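Entry for the shared binder. Reason: the reviewer on the internal report wants the predicted structure included alongside the sequence.
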Amino acid sequence: MTAATLPSGSVPEQRGKVFSRDALYFAFVANIVPSIPFYLLAFFVCPLRALPIVLYFTLAVIGLRLNAFILVMLAVIVAFTDVVLVISGIFNLSPILIIDSIKYSANLDLFSFLGYAFLAAAILFFVGLYVYFLVRNRRVYQKVSLYPAILTCCAIVGLDFYLNASPQTFFANFLQNRTEFTSAAKQINLSAPMSAGEDENVLIVMVEGMGAYADPAHQKLLWDIFKT
């Protein structure tokens, strides 16, 4: 039987409708576009993002029938949630603590590091692109099959678990040197329970990620504290 003699509603025809070009485009917009900056971040370090991925997909589906303004507002909320969860995962901080710390942001130069500024601009750009495509093509996307988008969402969530489940991500571990972390407490035998005498005290100070000040005068203030 040739393709010309296939009856209407045949399996190949139905399959073509399910995986139509517009359906694949919608799957790309709903699952890939808003997360592109974080996919690039995964080459260095990126925590699990299963929840934001599902939220972007869900918003894309319901957003096709929402007012454009409401869609924009919900997209901002989802993007904000995404950023908070990513920061929380990278720095091991509570999301509530991060949100509470926003009140101190006026005292910080958050964009003194070019990488932060670039990442913020990229997030705004791709989330804006995500909303733009949904609003512009909503009549087309309302008619497409959701199966490609659902399958893509499940595949990306699974890939996210595979690449970002460990503290050091797959890509970071692959690209960086494989230096093993060691414990100073174990090296000086402080890991085992110890009993101190009545006149003995033990103080363990851990200094992590201080960085270095660009101004030598500021750096001197820091080191003078430790020298005393």
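Summary line for the report: Residues 1-6 have pLDDT under 50 and may be disordered.
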